[in-house]
């Protein structure tokens, strides 16, 4: 089962302790084969909308900073419970904030 974990941006700059703890966590998940991809996201981005044959592209940002997605991790685990445990461990490292977890369907 694959899960996409989305980290909402929080605006606070990470300190050295956070970098070290997150680095160790990412290293562990990579070595175990659980972590498929991770990265930060550009807060600006763009939006594409379609209506019939018309496409509209609008430059961002679009949401309030507290709602913007700042980064993601794509993991492959055996169960929803395992995905939730990884999200718990992540939240414990980074502290207060919000993480969205979605199962990814398809090949």
Helix/strand layout:
Elements: E1 2-8, H1 16-32, E2 35-40, E3 46-51, E4 54-59, E5 69-76, H2 80-94, E6 99-104
Antiparallel strand pairs: 1-5, 1-6, 2-5, 3-4
Average pLDDT rating: 88
**Count the helices. How many?**
2
Structural class: alpha+beta
What is the domain total for the residues?
Answer: 1
Question: In oligomeric terms, what are we looking at?
Answer: single chain
- What is the CATH level 1 assignment? Alpha Beta
Anisotropy-based shape = globular
CATH architecture: 2-Layer Sandwich
Describe the structure concisely.
With 107 residues, the protein is an alpha+beta fold.
Characterization of the model:
The model has no long low-confidence stretch (mean pLDDT 88). With 107 residues, the protein is of the alpha+beta class. The protein has one domain (2-104): Alpha-Beta Plaits, CATH 3.30.70. β3 (46-51) and β4 form a beta hairpin. It has helices at residues 16-32, 80-94, and strands at 2-8, 35-40, 46-51, 54-59, 69-76, 99-104. The chain starts with a strand and ends with a strand. It has a four-stranded antiparallel beta sheet. It has a two-stranded antiparallel sheet with strand order 3-4. It comes from Actinoplanes lutulentus. Pfam families: YCII. This is YCII-related domain-containing protein.
């Amino acid at each position: 089962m694959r899960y996409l974990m989305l980290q909402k941006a929080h605006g606070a700059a990470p300190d050295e302790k956070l970098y070290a703890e997150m680095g160790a966590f990412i290293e562990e998940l990579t070595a175990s084969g659980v972590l498929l991809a991770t990265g930060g996201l550009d807060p600006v981005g763009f939006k594409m909308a379609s209506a019939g044959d018309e496409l509209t592209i609008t430059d961002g940002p679009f949401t309030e900073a507290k709602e913007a997605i700042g980064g993601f991790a794509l993991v492959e685990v055996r169960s929803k419970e395992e995905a939730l445990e990884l999200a718990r461990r992540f939240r414990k490292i980074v502290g207060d904030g919000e993480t969205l977890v979605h199962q990814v369907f398809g090949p």
